[in-house]
Amino acid sequence: MQDAHLPAYKKAGFYVAGMFDIDNKKACILAKQFDISSVFGTIDEMCAAAGIECIYDVAVPANKLMDVLQHLPANCNVLMQKPMGENLTDAKAILAFTEANKMCAAVNFQLRYAPYVNAARNIIQQKLIGDIYDIMININVFTPWHLWSFLFESPRVEILYHSIHYIDLIRNILGNPSGMFARTFKHPVMQKLSSVRSDILMDYGHEIRAVIHTNHTHNYGLHNQHSYIKIEGA
Q1: What does DSSP assign to residue 23?
Q2: CB–CB of 85/91 below 8 Å?
Q3: Residue of 174, 190, 59, 191 lying closest to 120 (CA atoms)
Q4: Around Cβ 24, how many Cβ atoms within 10 Å?
Q5: CB 227 within 8 A of CB 142
Q6: Which of 126, 132, 114, 117 is closest to 231 using CA atoms?
Q7: pLDDT in the model for residue 183
Q8: Which fold has domain 5-108?
Q9: I want to staple 214 with a disulfide (CB 3.0 to 4.6 A). Which of 70, 139, 162, 174 is the partner?
Q10: Following CA atoms 170, 174, 177, 180 in sequence, which dihedral angle do they give, to the nearest 10 degrees?
Q11: What is the Cα–Cα distance from 30 to 70, expressed in whole angstroms?
């Protein structure tokens, strides 16, 4: 919230009516920093004040999503941080709960709406590069995973908390694949994390290649890091 959501909302001119955090001191500091008028002591207190004429922005670890959703009022609008639970069982339970309580719920897959992706999508839709036959996403960076302590308890990390954005982006462009092949990897200097590197192949038949390669442990200086999305058509 401090480094992503709240700065973006402030830049966009969105009014944040109030916030809650299990660390009340931290919430008070952020409220002062971003001119938020109310800091609530509990989720129930926040919901009583906010009602349903707002958007509940829930930025918590995946295994805490359902705990928060159960406090929100029926018929509310809720934006959930990705991923939608830590496994398929969690995702189905979250979906069933939001539908039963008539919530207008969404998961925060913002990469498909990034300005450069919108520009690329416009080029694709105009057929300026023909039919897509190759998409490659290559990430070779150093990510400070240690800043998110809850990740050390997660049974899966890289795909759920990062590459899920790239999978969603490719699906947005090409539709659902017929299958996927994926392998995640640990790293000698990050043994306490379940995975920090991934190779993913999405199956769209014999003519279309869609691959994702991520390495979050390339700690050899910014000048040696890179991150790109390559889309080819003919």
Answers
A1: S
A2: yes
A3: 174
A4: 13
A5: no
A6: 132
A7: 98
A8: Rossmann fold (3.40.50)
A9: 139
A10: -30
A11: 25
**φ, ψ (nearest 5 deg) of residue 142:** -115, 115
The residues, ordered by sequence, that sit 6+ positions from 29 with a Cβ below 8 Å of its Cβ are none
For residues 134 and 210, give the distance between their C-alpha atoms in angstroms, rounded to a whole number. Answer: 6
Strands 209-215, 197-203: pairing is antiparallel
**Secondary structure (H, E, C), 152-221:** HHCCCCHHHHHHHHHHHHHHHHHCCCCEEEEEEECCHHHCCCCCCEEEEEEECCCCCEEEEEEECECCCC
CA distance 164 to 30: 28
Q: Which pLDDT value is given to residue 92? A: 97
- Beta-carbon contacts of 181 under 8 Å, excluding residues fewer than 6 positions away, are 200, 201, 203
Measure the CA–CA gap between 73 and 76, rounded to whole angstroms.
6
The DSSP 8-state label assigned to residue 160 in this structure reads I
Q: Residue 11: enclosing H or E segment and its boundaries?
A: helix 5-12
Q: Two tokens at 219?
A: 């700690």
Give the pLDDT confidence score for residue 229 in this predicted structure.
98
| Cα dihedral sign, 86-90-91-97 | negative
Only one residue has tokens 């496994």, namely 87
Please, are residues 103 and 74 in contact by the beta-carbon 8 Å criterion? yes
218-230: burial string, b at 16+ Cβ within 10 Å, e else: beeeeeeeeeebe
pLDDT less than 70: residues of the chain: none
Residue with token string 């442990």: 217
- Quick one: tokens of 234? 């003919």
pLDDT for 52: 95
Hey, where are the domains in the chain?
5-108, 111-233
Furthest CA-CA distance within the chain: 57
